[in-house]
Amino acid sequence: MARPGAANASATQGKRPWPGAEARRVAAIVLRVLGGVGGGYGIAALSTMLLSTSLPMPKAEAVLTASMASFAIFAGAIVWAFAARSVARAWLGLAIPAALLALALLIPGSGA
C-alpha cells in the first residue's frame, strides 16, 4: 500500500526551488502581517479620532460608535494586506488611506 502523499513526492522529485525562494515567501508573509497589523491599527486609530469628533451626535455616543467601527476597519485592513496582489500594493493600499485620514484631521473645522 502506498503511503499518503507519495504521488506528490514523486511529482516534485528532481525539481529544486529557486535559491532563496522560501526566504522570499516568508519575508512577503511577514511584511503583510506587519503591514496589516501596524497599518490596520493606524488606520483604525485615525478613523476613530476623525469619526468621534465629526459625528453629529452626543460626544459619548460618537466615541462609542467610532470605537465599534474601528474593529471592522482594523479587520478590513488586515484582509486587504493579504488580498493585495503584491506586498508593495498592500502597503500602498494602507498608507494612502492613513495619509488621507491624517490630512483630514489637520483640516481646521474637522472637529479635532
Automatic annotation (TrEMBL):
Keywords linked to the UniProt accession: Membrane, Transmembrane, Transmembrane helix
Transmembrane segments: 26-50, 62-83, 90-109
Pfam families named in the record: DUF3649
UniProt keyword Transmembrane helix present: yes
Residues covered by region (Disordered): 1-20
Protein name (database record): DUF3649 domain-containing protein
Lineage: Bacteria, Pseudomonadati, Pseudomonadota, Alphaproteobacteria, Acetobacterales
